[in-house]
Amino acid sequence: MEVDLLRHGACEGGPILRGGGRDDPLSPEVWRQMEAALRGAGPWRRILTSPLRRCSEFAWRLARRTGTRLETVAELAEMGFGRWEGRTTRELADEPGYLQRLVDPAAATPPEGESWEAFRARVCAGWEAVLAGTGPVLVVTHGGVIRLILGLVLGMPDEALLRIEVPPACRTRLRCGVDEAGRRWASLIAHVPPELGG
User: Fold this and answer.
1) pTM as predicted
2) Residue 187 sits in a domain of what CATH number?
3) Which residues of the chain have pLDDT under 70?
4) Please, what sign has the CA dihedral across residues 142, 170, 105, 112?
5) HSE-up of 98 (CA within 13 Å, CB side)?
C-alpha cells in the first residue's frame, strides 16, 4: 500500500510553536504550495486528516473536488505543547526542558502539555487506522506526526526524530506491506517540495 504523508503549509501567525492546542488557519498562498506538493500523486482511495483546520480544510476541499472518501482521525493531530504554544523558539530557549527536548523528545514534557509517551501512543493508534484500510491513501497531518510515523516504520530511535526536516507543504511517500512471515515492512520515497528545488 502506498501512503502519501502531506504536512500542512505555513499558517497565519508566523513561525511559532504550533501544536494541538492552536488552530490557526493557513495563509492564502499555502493552498497553492500544498497543491503543488501533490502534483503527480494520487488518485487515492481515502484521505485521512488531522482534525485541526490547517489540515482538515485543505483535505475537505481536496476530497470534495476529487470525490475521495475523507476520514478525520483525531490521533493524527499534532502534539499538545501546553504553555509553549504560540511562542517562538527564541522565546522558549530559556524555558526549563525546552533545549533538552530538542535532543531527546522524551526528555521533557511541556508545562500543561502532552507527554512524549502519550503522543507516541496516540500517533501509533492513528498509524494503525491508516494501515487498517485500503490504499493508496493520503494523510494530511503535521510535522511532529510525520516524524514519528517515519521513525516507527524505519525503526529509528526517538532521539533521532527531530533531525528529520519536514518543511511546510512537503510530501513524503511510504510504500508499506507485509512479508510472508506476517512482518510489516516499509520503504521511503522522499519528495522535496517545489519551492526547495524539487
Assistant:
1) 0.90
2) 3.40.50.1240
3) 12-14, 21, 190-198
4) negative
5) 17
pLDDT tens column, 129-138: 999 888 899 9
Residues 6, 106: Cα–Cα separation, whole Å: 24
pLDDT of residue 191: 63
Question: How high is the pLDDT of residue 189?
Answer: 83
C-alpha cell at 157: 530511535
Q: Which structural domain range is residue 192 located in?
A: 2-196
Cα–Cα dist 46/133, whole Å: 8
Contact partners, residue 89, CB within 8 Å, separation at least 6: 15, 17
Residue found by looking up cell 501512503 in the block: 3
**Look-up of cell digits 508545562:** 111
Q: Which position has the grid cell 507485509?
A: 178
